[in-house]
Amino acid sequence: MRRSALAAVAAIGSASLLLAGCSKADDNKSDNGTKAAGANAATTDVVNVSTHKGGTVTYELSDVPDSFDPGNTYYAYMYNFSRLYARPLMTFEPGPGSKGNTLAPDLAASKGVSSDGGKTWTYKLRSGLKYQDGTAITSKDVKYAVERSNFARDVLSLGPNYFQQFLVGGKDYKGPYKDKSAGGLKSIATPDDTTIVFHLNTAFQEFDYLVAAPQTAPVPQAKDTGVDYVKNIVSSGSYQFQSYQDGKQAVLVRNKNWDASTDPLRKQYPDKIVVNLKVNADTIDKDVLAGSAIDLGGTGVQSATQAQLLTSADKKAGTDNTYGGRLVYTAINTKVAPFNNVQCRKAVEYAIDKVSVQTAEGGPVRGDVATTVLPPDITGYAKDDQYASTGSKGDVTKAKAALKACGKTSISTNLSARSDRPQEISAATAIINSLKAVGINASLKQYPSGKYFTDYAGVPKFTEKQNIGLIMMQWGADWPSGYGFLQQILNGSAIGASGNTNLSQYDNKTVNGLLAKAIGTEDASARNTIYAQIDKQTMSDAVIVPLTYFKVLLARPANYSNLVSTAAFSGQYDYLNVGTTK
Questions:
Q1: pLDDT tens across 264-273, in order?
Q2: pTM of the prediction?
Q3: Across the chain, how many H-helices and E-strands are there?
Q4: Dihedral class, residue 542 (left if φ above 0, else alpha if ψ from -120 to 50, else beta)
Q5: CA-CA distances (angstroms) from residue 79 to 164, 188, 290, 410?
Q6: 403 Cβ contact partners less than 8 Å away, ≥ 6 residues apart
Q7: Most distant CA atoms of the chain, gap in Å
Q8: Interior CA angle at 219 toward 147 and 106, to 5°?
Q9: First to last CA, the chain
């Protein structure tokens, strides 16, 4: 889902080894008795199982999130965390590993009912749903939430725009802030307070996944203040905001009007949840190892900490290392010359030494060298390598030949990366060194992750003006399918003026058509075949340089309970029911 925040890890040489399986028992005590845990334990089971109520769970983040507003966020960790105060129609079960990809009704009473060949989807809300102030949650609030998050892009630009693309009349609707009519978008019907019906312009066979996004979490129109709603979010979940200090801290406490009988997923274990922002990354690692904090970004430990963990059997036993449907890549901006020429783009593809990038990220423990857009743990993946080189170290001869075919002997461009992501900076530096060897001179431009998409890399006009031809990126699937991974980074209709995630500004009619065909195809196997075809076409057009299939290395904080590393949120711990052990 989604922009995945990159971990802060530099090269560490021989310590970068793949984690072994469960290697050492520990003395984790739980309400269910004594349970041994070891390396990767949270990827297959719940670690520190407990029903203890009370205490404070503390999260820390090295920068700021794009937004706590559930309708204006697109980082995977915020999709995860926002469910504590914002209940979407559907969500993912808090299960370990691939079990976490299982959809479950949340605000809705059951999965959607499809009709008209998949062009109409109907949901019934659970009964007795209330906001934190005790007022009833209605289907109209869900409709309004979708309208504000998808159609007021000049106000809330950070989330995906699926609904805008697929709802009938969506491309012409200007959003609720400009629409003065009482009915809103006609293709979202609310025949009564517990029913919501979505009318689509094409069949969408994976729609239950789409409504699992926080954009379907209800927002009462009377309480909405646009971009300032983040300061006074009205909770529909098990926790509500006690305080919010922009760029500093958010504190959540139990929502007294949350009713467990309407919510089979949440348990409301801790008394309080604290999120501390702009915490030094080294400090986060120390606090996690001390058991007193969780890294909200779920990006994994830094290089020095990684070395400590992997060279100690005892410490390694308290880690989780897993894939999460993520790809680290460099987007090649097709609107910045000379990368509007496919041969110049292919020169970049051939030039990059991916092993040096992998080393900069922390070695094989942080991911395998990538050769496709789709990661191996996403349906639709098919093994392919169109720019193969000996040892994946780049091919200078072929790169120079492509550059010559482009009519160039050298190129000067800029490469953007997030300033608070040391691993991303290290990877970008390795890329710059590879490119220099073939005559492509790239200068590094660093921007803060909290504004990376709103003000810099995600603003096409900015990238074009600043000659940013190459853009560092990490992407996790919005949901576990080829469509959930590819749509927002490859479809031309996903290109936005701000908050853009199609960083290559790739608008290929064939690919756009294949994406539309795939999502309307009922047979899952046939859909997967199309996703592989899209991947192959994209690589042929050389708009994305796959670098690594990213793996996260998490250190388990010993003082927290109910820890599961879930594929649904890129290998992060599922935040829905984390509690304290005492």
A1: 999 999 999 9
A2: 0.84
A3: 15, 23
A4: left
A5: 19, 23, 26, 42
A6: 343, 344, 347, 409, 410, 411, 438, 439, 440
A7: 69
A8: 100
A9: 33
